[in-house]
């Protein structure tokens, strides 16, 4: 009876732990999806703000001029801008194709607005009242530009968070020494090979496909073990690497192993392993070799 009861309690505990792990990953994925959705919504809000600003500017320009022909053209452009603004408001932020089309239209609206401002300034350069109104329009434009700058900064922060969430992460970095017989040894002077192993963590938000993993082995004196002048780019610099490993990343956790054949004298001391991929340092670990 006691055995059955203990078995039931153990099973319940295992199920509870499993549920907690699954809940953690679901919450993590939901948080990342929310951040990406917020990024898309922020970009749409930025476009809506600029369309609305241009529509208001057309009204301001219409007040400033007495040219009937130009009034008709401005009214037509204002209605077009308002129509595009309404289309944007009715478009879901997740509709990438429609957002791209409206972004292209926005560039055209911006160029047309600029041409009309130049034309009107040229026609009314001697009119002081118009100059005053133009200053008002420009002030409104600067205010809108400041708001768009703020939105752009917020979008950049979200971009960085999304990029950080999508990068690879190397864990459980290990360094093993083996002698000429292929057996493990704890003495560096007897070692003929360094074996480096690590795990690439599961990341559903990271792009899948072929990846380059660059491994740098730093000696106690700060030099990097390297054969030849093989380099990769990191933070706008070319860094030497010891080993390059190709992996096919599927988004799931996977283990990776590489080795370095010792053909040079290696002095005892602290050796540091650095791992890089896609322009990011994804892990590091220090080992004391005797």
Task: Sum this structure up briefly.
By secondary structure, this protein is of the alpha+beta class.
Write the layout of secondary structure elements.
Elements: H1 2-64, H2 68-90, H3 96-123, H4 128-166, E1 170-178, E2 193-200, E3 209-218, E4 231-234, E5 237-240, E6 243-249, E7 254-261, E8 269-277, E9 280-289
Antiparallel strand pairs: 1-2, 2-7, 3-6, 3-8, 4-5, 8-9
Helix pairs in contact: 1-2, 1-3, 1-4, 2-3
Describe the structure.
The protein is α+β, with helices and mostly antiparallel strands and 290 residues long. It has two domains: 2-166; 170-289, Immunoglobulin-like (Sandwich). The chain has helices at residues 2-64, 68-90, 96-123, 128-166, and strands spanning 170-178, 193-200, 209-218, 231-234, 237-240, 243-249, 254-261, 269-277, 280-289. The strands form three sheets. The protein has a four-stranded antiparallel sheet with strand order 6-3-8-9, with no helix packed on it. A hairpin with a 2-residue loop joins strand 4 (231-234) and strand 5 (237-240). The relative contact order is 0.10.
